[in-house]
Design goal:
The chain is of the alpha+beta class and about 650 residues long. The protein contains 19 helices and 34 strands. The longest helix is centred in the last third of the chain and has 21 residues. About 5% of the residues have low confidence.
Length: about 650
């Protein structure tokens, strides 16, 4: 069953609380001061039973102009608005401001409720209806149902319930598939239970025992118990009023303005890019560097505005901007917000968050403005832009759900369409834009080409080195899984050839440069002359008149070609000499079961030092084994 939160809105003393009581039987004025003064000061809550058997939560908000911040906290998560207008007064300043706030917060469904109809004549009521129609023209309430009621006599209450029931049935904007999120509007302690928070669950589902993260504290809590309108339940979902009994944080650590969400699913930052819209009757201009009060969810922050495409915004105008905060904002892309002037405290506009991960952008940049236009547009372009922004990080669809502000099902459908169109490419477990693949191809070819130029005698660059260089050089700083997927693509698409644990440019064959050929010839000659008396790299570098680095490449190539043997990293002999020594060594076992170092040294005619190097090498090959002071034969070469 689809759950919704219904919110009242309207001028002070226009009968919002009385209306809520008539609909639900609940007095939402819970504070002593509210009952003494006869006005709502803080937000109140009630449960509404509808004619079709459904139930909905009602949030009753204060109407006084000095309590707008409380109204904004209560308006969080409203699915259907009841704009309350007293029939004896008509539209008033706070009615206008509340309507503007609902519009800015993205509320899409509502009903206009004319209260106190028992106090006016029917002719006057028609005048009020015409006045209301003029005020709501151009808003989400244009063409919405208008119902006249009296909380005192009960007139119109059943008709209103029926209208609400139809609106609930028609509202299909479900957010239950998004990661869970609860903006906190109350925090208190229950003896024997501990910390309790309340709020409207605006996204996702939560079950008893779930782990959530508190923002901005970035601390995890566990849900011990859940209630919906004082009834204990095992789970709740978007559109429900919720009380959560938590473990893991104390009452003093939480307050209105905190948000509980599935761990890691909210972004948190002090600089965000937004689309800023001023109301049609905003009494003040918003200039570049203006300071404003910012409201999103139940958060109230102070921000400084940096306009990106103008120097000033006037009433009714909109533009792109960056907002910087003194305290971190916790939100998701496409969250709605409201901004109010610092002094006097009046609503001047609001907008939509476009990029929670923003860096300081250049003003009046066509590229910046074009990107933000895409992020403010349809889902398909937004997803494509998010993947392009990620560079070669290859974000998964799960990574994109929060940033794209859509359900997994809608995202999957959109991704499939973009992949079919060639706008995105599946890369391992994630996605990448063709432009990022081109960057990968270009960098990989550049790295391997340079490697070939410097080490032309080697088969290619080691895969481990290529992975490391790509991880640090590609945009988005891809992680190990993304890098592995990109390297696999480089091979499968023919950009590189994989040769064992190395990669090379297609068709590349190791070859000696003229200088390297000269060095190789000198090394061959020197080792042929030295026979079994192994030579060190320093001795060979001196003989070949070259530096150690150049020699190392030549020695590695000669060893791979099996022209020389590295007895140790510091001792080299020719393959011919080594094989002759091995033949002599194995032949000695024709006449004896063991061979000593002295016996072998005498037979091959070298010093103890060189004979020891050869025997240790044979042991390393598991041809022989030292037992006591002599060696025994384990196998003959080739067997």
């Amino acid at each position: 069953m689809r759950h919704v939160v219904i919110g009242t809105a309207g001028h002070v003393d226009h009968g919002k609380t009385w209306l809520t009581r008539a609909l639900t039987g609940t007095d939402t004025d819970r504070l002593k001061e509210e009952r003494e003064r006869g006005i709502t000061i803080d937000i109140g809550f009630a449960q509404l039973k509808l004619p079709d058997g459904r139930s909905a939560g009602i949030v009753d908000v204060p109407g006084h102009e000095r309590l707008i911040k409380n109204m904004l906290a209560g308006a969080t998560g409203i699915d259907i608005a009841l704009l309350v207008v007293a029939a004896d007064e008509g539209f008033m300043p706070q009615t206008v401001e509340h309507l503007e706030i609902l519009q800015l917060l993205g509320v899409r469904h509502g009903i206009v409720v004319l209260t106190k109809v028992d106090l006016v004549e029917r002719e006057w009521l028609e005048v009020v209806r015409e006045d209301v129609a003029e005020h709501v023209a151009g808003t989400f309430l244009e063409g919405a149902p208008v119902v006249a009621v009296s909380a005192k006599t009960g007139e119109g209450i059943e008709e209103l319930k029926e209208l609400i029931s139809r609106a609930v049935a028609k509202d299909e904007d479900s957010r239950v598939d998004l990661p869970a999120r609860l903006p906190v509007d109350r925090v208190f302690t229950v003896r024997g239970h501990g910390t309790v928070v309340t709020g409207s669950l605006i996204d996702g589902r939560v079950k008893t025992g779930d782990t959530l993260m508190a923002y901005p504290q970035l601390k995890t809590v566990r849900v011990r118990e859940l209630q919906n309108h004082d009834v204990t339940v095992d789970s709740v979902e978007a559109g429900m009023r919720v009380a959560m009994n938590l473990t893991g944080m104390e009452r003093k650590e939480l307050e209105r303005g905190c948000t509980l969400a599935a761990p890691g699913t909210l972004a948190q930052g002090r600089c965000v890019s937004v689309r800023l819209q001023l109301t049609s009757d905003a009494p003040f201009l918003v200039r570049n560097t203006s300071q404003l009060h910012f409201y999103a969810g139940t958060q109230e922050l102070v921000c400084r505005v940096r306009l990106l495409d103008a120097d000033v915004l006037e009433a009714g105008e909109s533009g792109f901007a960056q907002l910087t905060f003194e305290q971190p904002l916790a939100a998701r892309n496409l969250d709605h917000f409201v901004v109010r002037f610092l002094s006097p405290m009046v609503t001047v506009g609001g907008g939509v968050v476009l990029d929670m991960g923003a860096h300081r952008e250049k003003r009046r940049s066509e590229d910046v403005l074009s990107r933000l236009s895409v992020l403010a547009g349809p889902l398909e372009g937004r997803v494509r832009q998010l993947v392009e922004d990620a560079g070669c990080a290859c974000p998964s669809q799960e990574d994109l759900v929060g940033a794209s502000a859509c359900s997994p099902a809608d995202l999957s459908t959109t991704v499939d369409a973009l992949v079919r169109a060639g706008s995105l490419v599946h890369m391992g477990p994630g996605l990448v834009a063709p432009s990022a693949l081109e960057r990968t191809r270009s960098l990989a070819q550049k790295l391997v080409r340079k490697y070939h130029a410097e080490r032309g005698l080697e088969e290619g660059m080691r895969l481990s080195e290529l992975r490391e260089r790509l991880a640090s050089g590609l945009p988005g700083r891809p992680g190990p899984r993304a890098v592995e997927a990109l390297v696999s693509w480089l091979g499968s698409s023919g950009v590189l050839e994989t040769r064992g644990d190395c990669v090379a440019l297609p068709g590349f064959q190791p070859s000696y440069a003229p200088e390297q050929e000269r060095i190789a010839a000198r090394v061959r000659k020197e080792l042929a002359a030295s026979g079994l008396e192994a030579r060190s790299p320093d001795e060979l570098a001196q003989a070949a008149s070259c530096d150690a680095r150049t020699l190392a490449g030549v020695l590695a190539r000669l060893a791979r070609d099996d022209e020389i043997v590295s007895l140790t990293p510091e001792a080299f002999v020719s393959r011919v000499a080594c094989d002759e020594a091995l033949g002599v060594f194995t032949d000695m076992f024709d006449d004896a079961e063991t061979v000593t170092l002295g016996d072998f040294r005498t037979r091959v005619g070298v010093s103890r030092k060189y004979a020891q190097l050869l025997l240790d090498y044979f042991d390393h090959l598991r041809i022989s084994k030292l037992v006591g002071d002599a060696r025994v034969l384990l196998r003959r070469e080739g067997s």
